[in-house]
User: What shape does this take?
Amino acid sequence: MTDQENLLGSDGIPRFWYNIVPDLPKPPAASLHPATHKPVVADDLKRLFPEALIAQETSTERLIEIPEEIREIYGLWRPTPLHRAKRLEKALDTPAHIYYKYEGVSPSGSHKPNTAVPQAYYNKQAGIKRLAIESGAGQWGCALAFAARLFGIDVTVYMVKGNSQHKPYRRIAMETWGAKVISSPSEETAAGRAVLALDPESPGSLGIAMSEAAEDASNTADTNYALGSVLNHVVMHQTVIGIEAKEQLKALGESPNIVIACCGGGTNFGGLSFPFLADKLKGKEMRAIAVEPELCPTLTKGEFRYDLGDNAGLTPLLMMYTLGHDFMPPGIHAGGMRYHGVSPLVSHLFNEGLIEARSVQQSAVFEAGVMFARCEGIIPAPESAHAIRTVIDEALRCKEQKTQKTILFCLSGHGHFDMPSYDDYLTGNLHDHELPEEQLHAALSKLPHVEFRW
Assistant: This one.
């Protein structure tokens, strides 16, 4: 075994997901019913999710056993490799040791199947025939289309219009796995029609697509909703990333000083960092950095408030950092990072000062992505390149300070379906913009007034 590539055998596939909630010094705030502002109970969620996932969403158990059928499917690509980026280290002339957990080896090319498979499994167990979902850049749509096909479940994907036009190959991949893809906002739902009535040329957003998918699921008896990010059970499923990485690094005699991942809805970041934060909560020194786009700066410029999870108010009120459910993010190339809020668990950790957050501009992100590709050979997804940007910055800081630190990051997916974005960068057609403060203030001013305290 070398530190260039460390593959665990099939016995290394985790047997449990890790739930960080019971380890937190202070419990996170309860989700609230959007109409009554009272804490959500299981019956409130049954129109969207199967009972098994509702139980996981509200669980206070530290470890949740992974069913063997799910572990067997995980075995198609898990355990995923841990690589040391020695060529990048050399190019940066840094004393830092840089490791990355590569989730792009999954069938759909990203970390999303880690939760798509269990969500499809539990819905199949509950007798559900169809799933309605939203998808931004298409990673979640691809993952669930793949996973649902394994269990014989139909899928309808409401894909953000701007991304469906800019990333057609992910739409084609979804359709190849048998999913029906609808550009959002659409005429198929009341939520979509309401948006189009105000702006027929709306490029859409994850919040709008979530409203359409939730409305579809609520109005159809044999259909459920499946969410690829944000909620507790989704973050928990992704902890297989960090659990494996801990064992792989342990075998190499390494332990990370800094853990970094991009952060849109928060499950990629949580999936890698939460198993390591379990040690920090016990007193170990380490840093965890969530990296987001400068044009969708939820943690760095948002407010920690109760807000709706979607645009139309069909989902619970979540205590999270938010830019406002009406916020319409610019059409950045990292389409999977355009959600107005962040996972309540990630938000809680940030509010408690247990993690850090950075926001970065597009040009710096793609500069880092190109450098990584030229050093390590893998073209990263634009989302993943946000993490790489911060990894490079931290590695250069190690060089300046002449300190050796171990940096771990999640390479959450490859960029093979994102080549138009790289083409824009390489041809000089990708530009940085500042987020208008008035746009941010306008969206935040519409946040719901909630007096509930926990």
About this structure: The radius of gyration is 20 Å.
